[in-house]
Amino acid sequence: MEPPLHIEIERFLQDRLSHYLALLRRMVAINSFTANPEGVNSLGEETAVIFSDLGFTADTVPSPHPKFGSHLVLTRAGTSGRKIGLISHLDTVFPPDEEIRNEFHWREEGDRIYGPGTVDIKGGTIAIYMLLDAIRTHEPAVYDAVTWVVLLDASEERNGEDFGRLCKERLAGDTGAALIFEAGKVEDKDHWVVVARKGMAIYRVTAEGKASHAGSAHEAGANAIIQLADAVQRIGALTDYGRELTFNVGTIRGGTVTNRVPHLAVAEVEMRAFAVPVYEAGVAAMMALPETASVQSADGEFTCSLTVEITRKTAPWSRNPGTDGLLAVWQAAAEEIGVNIVPEERGGLSDGNYFWQEIPTLDGLGVSGGNAHCSERSADGSKEQEYCELSSFVPKTVLNVTAVLKLLQR
Which CATH fold topology does 199-314 show? Predict the structure, then answer.
């Protein structure tokens, strides 16, 4: 009696795991900090070579931002009109000198593999490769019928808006899913997948006052820092955990010298929310902030003003029928192979925020790990570097392969 397909796939992946890890090690060795376009492009070239073994052709798309590298699109055309998008990104958050300073490189300890991008997201790119390799080997007719499009963002860690447009363009038509391989926790038989993400808005809040000599004409000055401090308190009070709405005042700057009443102060603020109505209410509250300006000079001749600018706006990826439909497929696959799905609504953004409304999207399909965006390491263990978990590669891929095959049977 033939073993179930998922058992055959598990054996196949386990036998080839050392090969997959060797590919990952090649990727991790390349610094691909977002603001290192040469490194990002080098990783793109290496990734194109790796996926050429699976029959993919490469297309690079320059970013509109000259300081960033090029996006990478890998395509293998199928015989049917059906299409599946597989999403990852090339960039990491670690400048080259930081990797050197912290001795942050490939390091294996037990079940953990440390290194820049091991979990966010080079490990996810290898999970895509593993999925395709398994389907090509065990279901060659399916592999040949589907058009597979692997899209890798050059600047996800900074701004994925233009990459989102690229995904919508390349995945137009009969696309069954956009599957995102950001990290997904695996613990025993529980597998986390991401079904929603918060939206984000970034604001610049500027308080304008009136400069004056702090000693001889203090009463004529209107202190912009005091006005901004009042605004900061009001912004902090807008956070509402019950509605999953948060505001973070991230930076403040103002004034020049202590013997001058400051005429200008600026704060940068980040807002996040899951639900679109809550998100829009948060935007409205911030844009109403100028109405609260009230700090005056002591002589009553001048009142400070506030201005609020939105410098970046990314809408929430809310729970929706397209994502929930994919979740149901993954749940059915999990039941078939004897594991559990844990749906997660995650606070951080991903590329999925930009296209979930046009294409059914599911996230968190990458490998498990921890300490994403961390490069520091301390002797007492209070600081540790980013890592992926070796034991998650095969189980996560078995789940993803089973689910994708179910999806394509629909």
Answer: Alpha-Beta Plaits (3.30.70)
